[in-house]
Amino acid sequence: MNVNVAILAAGLGTRMRSRRAKVLHRAGGLALVEHVIEAARAVAPPDRMVVVTGHQAEQVEEQLAPLGVRFARQQQQRGTGDALACCRDLLEREAGDLLMVLYGDTPLLSAATLLRLRDEQAKSDAAATLITTTLDDPSGYGRVLVDAGGNATMIVEDKACTPEQKRIRVINSGIYCFRSDLLWRYLSEIQPNPVSGEFYLTDMAAILTARGYRVRIMHLDDPRELLGINTRVELAEADRILRARKAEELMLSGVTIERPETVSIDARVRAGMDTVIEPFVRLLGDTEIGEDCRIGAGAILESSRLAAGAVVKPYTIISESTVESRAEIGPFARLRMSAHVGPEARIGNFVEVKKSRLGAGAKSQHLAYLGDARIGKGVNVGAGTITCNYDGEKKHETEIGDGAFIGSNSTLVAPVKIGAASYIGAGSVITDAVPGEALALGRGRQVVKEGWVAKKRARAGGPRSE
Ligand code: UD1
Ligand code: CA
To answer: In CATH, what number is assigned to the domain containing residue 392?
Structure first.
């Protein structure tokens, strides 16, 4: 049975109090609507999904285009019924037997639930199946009127509820599976709501019932995955749940997480077996962590890759960078803009590495800035070393050959090359190339004046001659 999916995402989301379209707000490291698309993949490939855009359509489409979904524009936000009508041209021609309608603001929805919904609708003779649940506090949601046979006969929006209807706790999740033919045949019967003037998709329950069809409900006992995000309070709640789910997924796959309630791990992050994640870690974007790694407390890794056995010590920040196997980074280190740290290399406290490569076993253990540098294998970079990569206009490169020793507090003025196995004396300012196996010194020569203190004393404090 063919399934097409329409995802309604054109609303501004006034209750968010934001200039940004609601469905682009992020929870668990993805835009809300991206979670919905992710779940919907279980029932249809992305090219059978149409996302209805309106508010900030360009931004929403730009963000979602790489996922391979299609788009329909809703010029004016005239309600969920009108939004679905905007997909007619794209979807009605398709041979799809079923049309699943999802809202872009329900990010906790699971693939398993959508599969169940498809199967329930496919085996029933109903015109549609909609997912309901029971909430202690149903305010804000549409209430579902269910007849003795378990069919939905009407959905009443919160604002339109009579005091009695307000007490109904069975709510409409906004997730439906329609028989395509019947949906497209009767969709245009939706009339604008007398109060708001909007076309409510939820009216389809009453319309189909009046036409003699049945609308079934699929009731979920656990309402958590149906949370619709309308405010930032609900956004925070969704984020919390998504992060908890992600931590659980990693733990079940063999990752130790200490105090999992304190870590934030984005949806796309991967981590290998026997890796240990300490409290308050944030793993963001497309970060990939190998096996047997340790991520220290408070570390933040964004879109970075760590090979097996790498150790990141507490309070280190790594973005868009790569750390090879068994290298050690931190504490309090920073890697950014495609920094690449070779196997078993070490980057210590208060070292910043920007757009630089360090070879296997290289070390920079304390207080350094390494920018636009290519640093060979086994190089030792002393404390306080600075690559002066910027001349006020352009960035320049520093190259350090294998096995070189850079004395503490050296200033390497780029562009400059330091040959393999050479030594730079501590405190040097290096402006010219250094050949391999040489010693370079670039500092004032030390002067020692013996007995100087006694002479000073004699001049200043000695008995004065009359
Ligand atoms: C909707 C349902 C309500 C249900 C609740 C579940 C309707 C009329 N009401 O209410 O029964 O309990 O979801 O979360 O459907 N949208 C458009 N174009 C529009 C209007 C909305 O694309 O013109 C999109 C929004 O971007 C959003 C989704 O539809 O992703 C739902 O809209 P929203 O305004 O949040 O509906 P609710 O009032 O929450
Ligand atoms: Ca909503």
So the answer is: 2.160.10.10
Q: Give 1 or 352, the one with higher predicted confidence.
A: 352
- Paired tokens of 180: 């395509």
pLDDT band for 462, please (50, 70, 90 cuts).
low
Residue nearest to atom 28 of ligand 1 (CA): 103
Residue 57 CA to residue 71 CA, distance in Å, equals: 9
What is the tally of structural domains in the chain?
2
Domain that holds residue 146: 3-226
DSSP one-letter string for 382-445: PTT-EEE-B-SS-B--EEE-TT-EE-TT-EEESSEEE-TT-EE-TT-EE-S-B-TT-EE--SPP
Mean pLDDT of 322-349: 98
Quote the CA–CA distance of 130 and 171 in Å, as a whole number: 10
Distance in Å, CA 111 to ligand 2 centroid: 19
DSSP per residue, 271-340: E-TT-EE-TT-EEETT-EE-TT-EE-TT-EEES-EE-TT-EE-TT-EEES-EE-TT-EE-SS-EEESS-E
Q: Residue 62 maps to which CATH number?
A: 3.90.550.10
> Atom 20 of ligand 1 has which residue's CA nearest to it?
79
Residue 366 is among the residues annotated as catalytic for this protein:
yes
- Nearest ligand 1 atom to the CA of 142 is 11
Residues 368 and 304 in one domain: yes
